[in-house]
Amino acid sequence: MVGPDPAVAATRLAVRRVLAGAADPDGQRVLVACSGGADSLALLAAAVFEARGRPWSVVGVTVDHGLHEDSAEVAERVVAQMAILGADETATARVAVTTDGHGPEAAAREARYAVLEELAQRFDSGVVLLGHTLDDQAETVLLGLARGSGGRSLAGMRRAWGVFRRPLLDLTRAETEAACRAEGIAWWTDPANDDPRFTRNRVRHTVLPMLEAELGPGVAATLARTADQVRPDIEALDGWALRVFDEVRVDDGLDATALGRQPSAVISRVLRLAALAAGSPPADLFHVHVVALADLVAVPRSGSGHGDVQLPGRVTAYREGDLLRFRST
Asked: Which pLDDT belongs to residue 303?
């Protein structure tokens, strides 16, 4: 008996492993986010196959960002294709992407995740599968490094958080395309994915191929593997910082003296948490802001009035004796 195509088998195994640890054995709806591209269609097909004979139902979900003229038509085609592939239910959601000073990619991503969380609640699902691949992970790491995002950039995309799971992070884009071809699945390619105005596209089509050509094959896999190696350390430090944040937090600020006894890696994380809690938007809070806050923590107790730090979101931080305080301006 001939088994499935290797790429098809790989996608099914990846989904099976994730659902074994995430899906309710007594049955629930599993949402699959599907854009109509090869990655998400291969993911949906694998989820449908793995749900056979199990008490799970698969809900295919597509999000229309309204960013091009035929987006509604594309969403309709994706819904029809998800039904043909065997999804038990399908859903589509249109979101309004407002940049508010952010890039269109970041704004679309935030809107997409927000509506997917809403749909998960509506369908009473604890699992939403996303189709990001090893190539997406490598691109994310490179982009983070280029932007100077620190250790978090090396950690890349999380495999799981909240209701979201990324089963395909060990598979390449070429493998998901091969899986689609093997199953006769035609996929849609978003024209925006070839637009060189977007930094990610330049990384995808120019930077990574150049690195592969100059350094040898396997650069993308190495970047993705590095993300897996670094993430446990980043998450451990984040957990430590959360505990310290709870310990040094006061009504409208932090006990700067107690915080100052912590390692610098913990101090910077606690200060970021405090700034976010005070109302600074995460997309606008940069390393330079955290460094300025750390300087306030480092001043002696007599440093009351030692200058203010203006943070995004019209938040001001200032030192008052042993305390680092925040106020809205």
From this structure: 47
Same-domain pairing of 194 and 322: no
What's this model's pTM, rounded to 2 decimal places?
0.85
- What's the CA gap between 182 and 172, in Å, rounded? 15
Q: Which residue has the tokens 């910082």?
A: 241
Give 58's contacts (C-beta < 8 A, 6+ positions apart): 29, 30, 32, 44, 47, 48, 51, 86, 87, 88, 89
* Residues 129 and 178 occupy one common structural domain: yes
**Number of domains forming the structure of the chain:** 2
Close Cβ partners of 157 (under 8 Å, ≥ 6 residues apart): 132, 136, 137, 140, 166, 169, 227
The candidate with the shortest Cα–Cα distance to 47, out of 91, 3, 87, is 87
Looking at the structure, tell me whether residues 198 and 73 fall in a common domain: yes
| DSSP-assigned letter for residue 218 | T
Q: What is the pLDDT along the chain (329 residues), one digit of tens a residue?
A: 567 899 999 999 999 999 887 756 556 899 999 999 999 999 999 999 999 888 889 999 998 876 666 778 888 999 999 999 999 999 998 866 665 555 566 677 778 888 899 999 999 999 999 999 999 999 999 988 887 767 777 889 999 999 999 999 999 999 999 999 999 999 988 877 888 888 888 999 999 999 999 998 899 999 999 999 999 999 999 999 999 999 999 987 899 999 999 999 999 999 999 999 999 988 788 889 999 999 999 877 554 546 799 999 999 999 988 999 999 87
The CA distance from 18 to 20, in Å, is: 5
Which of 205, 223, 241 corresponds to the end of one domain?
A: 223
Residue type, 314: R
Residue 200: inside a domain, yes or no?
yes
Copy the structure tokens of residue 293: 């806050």
The domain of 31 spans 6-223
For 265-329, what is the HEC assignment?
HHHHHHHHHHHHHHCCCHHHCCHHHHHHHHHHHHCCCCCCCCCEEEECCCEEEEEECCEEEEEEC
- Of 223, 240, 264, the last residue of a domain is 223
Regarding whether 256 and 208 lie in a shared domain, the answer is: no
